[in-house]
Amino acid sequence: MDMWHTMPRESGIYLIRNTVSGKVYVGSALCLRKRVVEHRRLLRAGKHRNPALQASWVKHGEGAFSIEALEICASEDATLLAAEQRHMDDLAKGASLYNACPVAGTRRGAKMPPEAVAKIADQKRGNAYRLGAVIPQEMRERIAEKLRGRKANPETKAKLSRARRGKPKSDEWKRKISEIHRGREISVEQRAKIAAKLKGRKIPAEVLAKRLATIAARKKEAQDARLHHPPLQDR
């Protein structure tokens, strides 16, 4: 019988060691034997969810790996995870871990490789799920109340700015923004902040031309309105 099938059937903490590199994988299970045999099955099939461990298995071969039961403990989740975390912390002091997550039982702290991040981004790009969905007014109010007063940090603001830059705005969106700002009074303090922020900034020629065209169009609209609807004179 091979070592994989000699593991205890009790719950506890196990270790898979690469005897060539010294790198180890630590895990917990309700049945140690069942878990390590499942690890081997996935590794042999090339389908293990830990890419670093799978790559080492392919590179060094099955014979380069050994397993051992580090601790037999109670089957409660909290007990198992606490024991797993303790062994991970102890082993990390002198060995390199295959474990992608530094916190046992969670994905917290896990670092995804760039190719995985790119793959997820491609999958989500253009996702039309819930496109056009109507959010109830009550939910809108709850979201607004939760976000009211919250200030984004500079890094988040920069990311949002880059994401929005160059995206075309629909006529409906422009109309809504125009209605929101129409008649809005800007305080002297706010004007001073805006002026200080824009001081020395060069406005591109095409942006300046658009602004001037907009101002001219508004003036013309106001003039036409006065011509067609002259003010009533007192008699």
Overview of this structure, please?
With 235 residues, this protein is mainly α. Among the domains are: 3-92, 3-Layer(aba) Sandwich (GIY-YIG endonuclease), CATH 3.40.1440.10; 163-227, no CATH class. 51% of the residues lie in helices and 9% in strands. It has 9 helices and 3 strands. The chain has helices at 32-45, 51-60, 77-92, 114-124, 137-147, 154-164, 171-181, 188-198, 205-228; strands at 12-18, 24-29, 65-72. The chain has a 3-stranded antiparallel β-sheet, with helices on both faces. Strand 1 and strand 2 form a beta hairpin. The chain is elongated, with a radius of gyration of 32 Å. It starts with 11 loop residues before the first strand and ends in a 7-residue tail after the last helix. The model has no long low-confidence stretch (mean pLDDT 84).
Shape verdict: elongated
CATH class of the domain at 3-92: Alpha Beta
- Flag low-confidence runs: none
Using only CA atoms, what is the Rg?
Answer: 32 Å
Question: First CA to last CA: what distance?
Answer: 113 Å
Kindly summarize this structure in a few lines.
The protein has 235 residues and is mostly helical. It contains nine helices and three strands, in the order ββααβααααααα. It has helices at 32-45, 51-60, 77-92, 114-124, 137-147, 154-164, 171-181, 188-198, 205-228; strands at 12-18, 24-29, 65-72.
